[in-house]
Design goal:
four-stranded antiparallel sheet, single chain, about 180 residues, alpha+beta, six-stranded antiparallel sheet
Length: about 180
């Protein structure tokens, strides 16, 4: 696992993300981008992915990719969903249709907004679900990279304020997920 605070040093990119009225539109909907090598990063979300994984790649080795699955998560005490239960990231459609498991190569969580919240911790069970989790606070401009396909993880309940995050999974083969759109 890698945790980097104050990750984005480019004030233009941070400003574009924070002023993008569509950044948290369709909260929870899954999207697919086939990467900068196939198409222009024409939104702040795609520019963020390029910034992380090409321009300032913090991962110790290059990953063969077909693209990025991404979605935003917004949790607060007033919404019906205040947390995200324990899970492994996977191709949900493939699993529900055939029972087959296919996981992303690596997962990323980025916190794009200032937050004043209670709860909303990302908990990663790196040593198995019977061991205590590593608990990571949702903090503005923090980047978290971990193996979302083999390490169970969850987001604890938000009891005050609003938690904002974008999750980005890197895939070596595009998932069959029917909800994915470009």
């Amino acid at each position: 696992m890698i945790v980097i605070d104050d990750f984005i040093q480019d004030p233009v990119l941070l400003n574009d993300i924070q002023n993008d009225k569509d950044f948290f539109e369709n909260n929870g909907s899954y999207y697919w981008w086939d990467g900068w090598w196939n198409s222009t990063p024409d939104t702040p979300k795609k520019r963020l992915m390029k910034h992380i994984w090409l321009d300032h790649c913090p991962y110790p080795f290059r990953i063969p990719l077909s693209g990025f699955e991404y979605w935003t998560g917004q949790y607060d005490p007033e919404t019906p969903v205040k947390h995200l239960g324990m899970h492994l990231d996977k191709d949900e459609a493939l699993f529900s249709e055939k029972g087959d498991l296919s996981h992303p190569v690596i997962g990323t969580v980025f916190y794009p907004y200032e937050m004043d919240i209670d709860g909303g911790f990302l908990e990663i069970f790196s040593n198995g679900i019977d061991s205590p989790p590593e608990r990571i606070e949702a903090k503005f401009n923090r980047l978290v990279i971990f193996n979302a396909g083999t390490h169970h993880h969850q987001v604890t309940e938000v009891t005050r304020g609003t938690r904002y995050a974008i999750a980005i999974n890197l895939w070596d083969e595009k998932p069959t997920e029917k909800l994915l759109s470009e």
